[in-house]
Amino acid sequence: MDAQQLSFLFVGLSFALYIGIAIWSKVGSTKDFYVAGGGVPPVMNGMATAADWMSAASFLSVAGLLAFAGRDAAVYLLGWTGGYVLLAMLLAPYLRKFGRFTVPDFIGERFYSKTARVVAVVCLIFISFTYIAGQMRGVGIVFSRFLEVDIDIGVYIGMGIVFFYAVLGGMKGITYTQVVQYCVLIFAFLVPAVFLSIMWTDNPIPQFALGDTLNDGSGMTVIEKLDQVTTELGFNAYTSTSRTMIDSLAIVACLMIGTAGLPHVIVRFFTVPRVVDARASAGWALLFICVMYTTIPSVAAFSRINLSESVNETAYQSAPAWIKNWENIGLIAWQDKNGDGVMQYRSGNAFSPVKPQFSDQRGEWGERQLTNQLTDNDNEIYVDRDIMVMANPEIANLPDWVVALIAAGAVAAALSTAAGLLLVISSSIAHDLLKSTFKPNLSDRKELFYARLAAVFALLIAGYFGVNPPSYVAQVVALAFGLAAASLFPPIVMGIFSKRIGKLGAICGMLAGLVFTLGYIIYFVFVNPSLNNTDNWLLGISPTGIGLLGALVNFITAFIVSHIKDDVPNEVTDMIDDIRIPAGARKAIEH
Questions:
Q1: Stated pTM of the model
Q2: What is the mean pLDDT of residues 164-180?
Q3: Per-residue pLDDT tens for 220-254?
Q4: What is the mean pLDDT of the chain?
Q5: Is the separation of the CB atoms in 485 and 70 below 8 Å?
Q6: Fewer CB within 10 Å, N or C, the chain?
């Protein structure tokens, strides 16, 4: 069988497994739907949390960002992994002790306010839809390449699969599906990395390959080879940086506290039986996440070297098949600026606008023609960063089954996070808005019906954003972290560790943080992208890192308003004392 037939087989088998689990774990109560009954073992919860957290951005896009941006993209690795440690140590046990279903549940109870609960729901929906757009886009990219369908069709297929197991099985179905998805995605990510590491360095452990000596007799390490390749083509050295120190620190801090405020990750700690299990599952999840994140730098390095050596100064008509395959679905483009029929890969954007806009015509060499304006530099090629991980096995001529394995892993990564996000959206609408705010007498059966209906509604919107994405997958996801940092992280921290913050302070803080951060992002990313540079940023901080300032705005607003206006009731301060005692969480339902 060829790579495409194997892709059909691997992806089809994984889908059959996910659907089988969904049927087995069909839920009949809201507690099963929201928190899987609260009885998930820590190891399995750690594995499911890792799959929930390692999205399409982690699997598809981070290595691509690192491959093209080099040292500048290291902020994503530092911020996201550091943020998980922050969540595990600072928040997870206390939230499990609280023992409710959702993050708005905690904020509504702690700040004794339905308004605070509704504001938290609004913040959660903003974050989740921003995040889920990246996941659905990732699903579309995978399907478009390996099943040879249009990206939009790929998004619709992904929507159908997620609909089945998320709506039917709720958190219980998602949890056990994510355990399988973690096994699929980590195996799919590691196998080609080991192959590439052996090919370039004779070292089977990719985590150690970056500083290892190449086996080509040059005596150079992989990182030295990268610096040589990039500088020869006119790029900055791979190990150099163009990002300012303050922007790098702001992005790392923003991603850290944004990770700690992600609602679909936090809710996973409500699914274990006890507080000690929440701590244990956080540790297991960190271990499972590190397996992939310590592999990403070497995958990025090998993909950049492979790409440069395979593409540059290669005649288009004798180019490898993978170039034309990706060109046919619009994620690689080439225009022959100097008329020699040979592809020149150099620094700078090949076209304006940056992303290719294809016409129906073919050029002299058979390449797809563009309507973009050609730039005046020597670069003739556009390569979408999101394809680097998937294209790597083809570029390196690895076996077809490895190429197919990558397809199954990428689909698993994107679907696992998309399902988790759908669940927190539906939980917030059905539980926090309807049951806890507007219809307190709603029966368990009707609440479950509305939760499933909300999941369908959320899936349709997510599909729209998947078809019309605003940017690269990892960049879209990074914006979601900024919104989480500015809106939900501060009230969760203040709710646990401060008895002085009242409901009015929390509400004003969340709104101020969200409006400030969202306004900054919209202005520079969508309204005035030409001004999106260091000279115009506030304190030199980019939209990706602005969530840090948004969080400070949230904290300061909450403290000032609470100091002027709020008096926290005694029963709430007693509840805070109880949350801080690390024992006595409600007994969970056994599975």
A1: 0.80
A2: 76
A3: 999 899 899 889 888 888 888 888 899 999 999 99
A4: 82
A5: no
A6: N
pLDDT tens, 16-58? 887 787 777 776 677 777 667 667 888 988 888 888 777 767 7
pLDDT at 591: 46
Element at 188 (helix H, strand E): helix 168-201
Are 387 and 327 in contact by the 8 Å Cβ rule? The answer is no
CA atoms within 13 A on the CB side of 286: 18
Looking at the predicted structure, is the pLDDT value of residue 9 above 60?
Answer: yes
What would the DSSP string read from start to end of 369-409? EE-SEEPSSS--EEE-GGGHHHHHHHHTT--HHHHHHHHHH
Q: Which residues of 179-199 are buried (b: 16+ CB within 10 A; e: fewer)?
A: bbbbebbbebbbbbbbbbbee
Residue 341: left if φ>0, alpha if ψ -120 to 50, beta else—which one?
left
Residue 485 structure tokens: 């940092």
Q: What is the mean pLDDT of residues 80-105?
A: 77
Length of the chain: 591
Residue 342, phi then psi, degrees to nearest 5:
-115, 140
Q: What is the mean pLDDT of residues 510-526?
A: 88
CA–CA separation, 411 and 138 (whole Å): 8
**Do 57 and 138 contact (CB within 8 A), yes or no?**
yes
Which of the 8 DSSP states describes residue 581?
A: S
